Amino acid sequence: MPLPICRFCREGDRFGREGDRFGHESDRFGRESDRFGREGDRFRHEEDRFRREGDRFRREGDRFRREGDRFRREGDRFRHEEDRFSFPCSLFPVPCSLNLESSRGN
Fold it and tell me: Residue 98 domain-assigned?
């Protein structure tokens, strides 16, 4: 016949099992915390990458705006040159190029 287990031993065993259960829970929470930490790091890296790409796109946009401004200025300059050199053909004794081209066709 087995010896009866005293109340204190039973309580000790129960507390031991509870301790093991809490230890396992603690380990699980630790693993989840590590996983969330890694995911947080990954999101931070992605956020940094998106920020760098955004900065690069902004710089390219600024460069395209500057080039557009430069082309607009060149277009304005060419229009001014064209306006400066386009006089009515009646001011010149020699016919203008349009008249020359039309006279060649006849």
Answer: no
Residue 93 lies in a domain: no
Structurally, the chain folds into a number of domains equal to 1
Per-residue pLDDT of the chain in tens (106 residues, 90 and over written 9):
666 778 888 888 899 999 999 999 999 999 999 999 999 999 999 999 999 999 999 999 999 999 999 999 999 988 888 777 766 555 655 555 555 555 555 4
Q: Does residue 94 sit within a domain?
A: no
Are the C-beta atoms of residues 77 and 71 closer than 8 Å to each other? no
Distance of CA 92 to the CA centre of its chain: 60
Task: Give the span between the Cα atoms of 25 and 89, in whole angstroms.
Answer: 97
Total-model pTM: 0.45
**Domain that residue 52 falls in:** 7-87
Distance, CA of 23 to CA of 18 (rounded, Å): 8
